[in-house]
Specification:
Largest sheet: 6 strands, antiparallel
Shape: globular
Length: 328
DNA sequence: GGCCAGGTTCGCT
DNA sequence: AGCGAACATGGC
């Protein structure tokens, strides 16, 4: 089977029993689809279940037991953005289409209004050039808190490269999959799937015993109903952090990360993050990294938009443009 | 081979 | 409260 990343746009040619539908979404301008989709896949062609190649963002969703492949492309502009969403599945109904519409909107950050953040950034001479270079970047969000949590735990402490490998391994070993025209696509594993995988199964992909336990325990909590992550959407930031850090395997870094990537809050700030500390150092302190306390202290000036600051700084870092944007 | 990487927990003072 | 070790793996 071919890897999806090598796939052209000829996906539909041989479809016989597949159903297909289209819809359009209108993001809050300014919206840069290429930047936002690139960020969603971490500036590689594939990240977890998400794939971005040839200008098309693709992801396999599992919606009430049915697997749906979603293809999104831009048919608008930065200031007048329009996205075309194509949905493919064995069978479709209006509930599935509604659900895909909601999830795709959330995933690609299309309802976020960036203008208050841009007004603040314009008054900050350090931040302004970096923000300017990524105008229209919205924050991609995880379809479920569970997915964000599992992905964050996988990424704790290890290099981003190792983390990426673990993430694809997790999906390819334990995620539901379906063949679409000789391309195998994977959806994110369900809590049930990872409970079945068990600590021993999770360890086989290269996770430490401890991380395997975190993930297995958390998945089991969701299956048994003891843990309800989605209900945290109704809570204030501080309460989300409090309840998340009570989960074994979740510390402050992970909780702040989830505020940004899974709850869509504007003011998350993972000040314990080594890469963020170094980036802040090169931004304001001539190169020497900030301590966690310094980072948190300095970041106060960016409240309540620290999720965006974090995202734009990482975008600059990961795209390799940070140094050139700093030298004025 | 040693050390570190987009942390967290656990067991010591 | 604060500090150090252990954790799996890949890259330099």
């Amino acid at each position: 089977l071919k890897k999806p990343s090598s796939l052209g746009i000829t996906l539909l040619d041989n479809f016989k029993k597949m159903e297909r539908t289209f819809m359009t979404l209108r993001p809050e301008p300014p919206y840069d689809f290429h930047l936002t989709a690139s960020h969603a896949v971490n500036f590689s062609s594939r990240y977890g279940t998400d794939d971005y190649n040839d200008g098309v963002f693709r992801r396999l969703f599992e919606i009430s037991g049915k697997l749906c492949l979603v293809n999104v492309r831009s048919i608008g502009t930065l200031n007048s953005p329009v996205l075309e969403v194509e949905i493919l599945a064995d069978s479709l109904n209006s509930d599935i289409v509604d659900s895909v519409s909601r999830q795709a909107s959330w995933l690609l950050g299309i309802v976020e209004d960036l203008s208050p953040f841009y007004r603040m950034a314009a008054r900050d001479s350090k931040l302004a050039p970096i923000v300017k270079a990524f105008i229209g970047l919205h924050i991609p969000l995880t379809p479920s808190v569970y997915e964000g949590l599992v992905m964050a735990i996988l990424g704790q402490q290890i290099s981003s490269r190792v983390a990426r490998k673990l993430r694809s391994q997790l999906i390819e070993n334990f995620g539901p999959s379906q063949d679409f025209n000789s391309c195998l696509w994977y959806a994110f594993p369900s809590p049930e799937g990872l409970v079945t995988a068990d600590v021993s199964g999770l360890r086989t992909i290269g996770l430490s015993t401890r991380k395997s336990e975190y993930i297995a325990d958390m998945s089991s909590g969701i299956v048994t109903g003891k843990l309800d992550l989605e209900k945290l959407h109704n809570q204030p930031d501080s309460e989300i952090v409090r309840q998340l850090t009570a989960i074994r395997g979740v510390g402050e870094w992970t909780a702040q990360w989830l505020l940004i990537r899974s709850f869509g809050r504007s003011d998350g700030f993972p000040y314990g993050d080594l890469a963020l500390q170094r980036t802040l150092g090169s931004l304001v302190a001539e190169g020497s990294a900030f301590s966690p306390d310094q980072a948190r202290e300095y970041s106060q000036r960016w409240s309540p938009f620290r999720s965006y600051v974090t995202t734009y700084l990482f975008a600059a870092l990961r795209s390799g443009k940070l140094t050139e944007l700093l030298g004025d």
